[in-house]
Specification:
354 residues; alpha+beta; Heat Shock Protein 90; 2 domains; five-stranded mixed beta sheet; 7 helices; 7 strands
Amino acid sequence: MSSRDWIPNNQWPKWGGYAAIALALALIAWLNWLSGGLLAPLYALIVTLAAIRFGWLGGLLSALCSGALLLIEATPAMEAAVDAATLVAVGLSVGLLTAREQRRKRHYKNLAEKLGNVYEKVQANFEGMKRAERLSALGQLSAGLAHEIRNPLASISGAAGILRRSQGLEPKQEKCIDIITHECSRLDGLLTNFLNFARPRAPRFQKVDLLPVLENVLTLAGHGIRGKQVSLANRVRVGLPSVECDPEQLEQVLLNLMINAIEASPDGDMVELGAAFSGDKITIEVVDRGHGVAAAHVDRLFDPFFTTKEHGTGLGLPVAHQIMSQMGGSLLARKNSGPGMTFCVVLPSKHTDS
């Protein structure tokens, strides 16, 4: 342990504080000389205060200065020497005790921070378990409903196709058949989302170079802009390690996040796709500066059927969250300090150096 560790507050004494101590000692020396030595006990007070404020080093230096002043002022040299030694003992003992208490306070503070972190992790795991139970129950319900609805829906769509091939249809009848066909197609897509949510396929793990996957996501997202004046920025760092994941599912998740970000962004804004490697984690971020989500709704973004879109199903983000959980990663959302949202895909870098 270095001498720095014995000093309270993890600081070397400040020269300003030492100057104040020196002035106090000079004042006491002058008053003690005027009183004929009656105020000598005040030296002990100054030494104690210096030891409490600056630790053993401050107590020792102030005690040595006080002892020197006593030796200069006092007639009996032996008595002055004893008083000086006493002051040194007081300065050292009070300083060491103060340092020990400061170390104990730092220890308890660090312990409290660690316990707080553990509590947050336990709380997060508990919330994850509750979400998993809800997802499981809703998944079973969604799968049953999807299968029950898909069969009659296929019959309706088939009947509409037969009617379309009929001769002599009036324009009004053709328009009704178009509506039936369009809505059947839309409902079939919704049922597909239900089934993907209820029974997502298991990931097919393989060692993947992330750079081509991310570049492909940017290319596909560029086709999804659909006339909006939104630009895409590539913030992917070079030298990312390869990871073991399902590239198709990862691409599906990132493309979903990019399309959401584009839809949330006003014209003239930018959507950023970034990726970085730290420790044993790879973090991929999709950042927009759009209208964002209310703070009260951020924790509900991954709940099934919760949506802030007018025509949304509330299944896109829950499906993406489930896919990332199956791959051993995570999907996180947070509000930006300014406008917009940031969605983070975190993957373990299970790469091996060849």
